[in-house]
Write a structure and sequence with these properties.
Layout: H1 12-42, E1 55-62, E2 80-85, E3 91-97, E4 103-108, E5 117-119, E6 122-124, E7 128-132, E8 138-142, E9 152-159, E10 163-172
């Protein structure tokens, strides 16, 4: 028997040699790319990708009076905030700061007639959202500066796990989000 293949047929050794030559290019490219990506990650080239922890989908601070009213607006200012927690763990809103007010409280209420109680935190359930309004659970700006002529009020919300989120709350007509 002869070790050579019949005419028109390629021997198994030749087939294996052709396959090795064809695979060498892609394998070498994959090895080089893996090395380059590893070096990029090792030198901090991935940047600071932070997963989305909390989203604010609505933020508004209604005026305390109508523009042009003879009396200057006074008293506390409520807020409208919709806070979305897309994560698998509950979080808590534990504080709010703003240059528009030196004292801001979190208030828990059972309904519009309930004056409410100051809360140490408001829970945002996992994979859920809450809507804060002056008619329910709320963020209240106590003795705020006059903000009614501004278009927005900056609010920095602090969450127990997600950290801080700063939003520009729209200044809206009294009682509206």
């Amino acid at each position: 028997m002869s070790a050579t293949a019949a005419p028109g047929r390629v021997s198994p050794a030749a087939r294996l040699s052709d396959l090795a030559r064809a695979a060498a290019g892609p394998v070498a490219c994959a090895a080089v790319l893996t090395g380059l990506l590893s070096a990029w990650v090792a030198t901090g080239g991935t940047g600071n990708i932070v997963p989305v922890r909390i989203q604010i989908s609505q933020a508004a601070v209604p005026m305390r009076g109508y523009p042009g009213a003879t009396a200057a607006p006074s008293g506390p200012a409520g807020t409208f905030l919709t806070i979305v927690n897309p994560t698998a763990a509950a979080d808590e809103l534990i504080a709010v700061r703003s240059p528009a007010a030196t004292h801001i409280v979190l208030r828990r209420r059972t309904g519009p007639e309930d004056p409410g109680t100051v809360a140490g935190a408001l829970t945002i359930p996992a994979k859920s959202s809450i809507t804060l309004t002056p008619f329910g659970d709320d963020v209240v700006l106590r003795d705020p500066v006059r903000f009614e002529s501004d278009s927005t009020v900056p609010l920095t919300l602090t969450f127990r796990h997600a950290g801080t989120v700063t939003v520009s709350a729209d200044v809206t007509a009294p009682g509206t989000p």
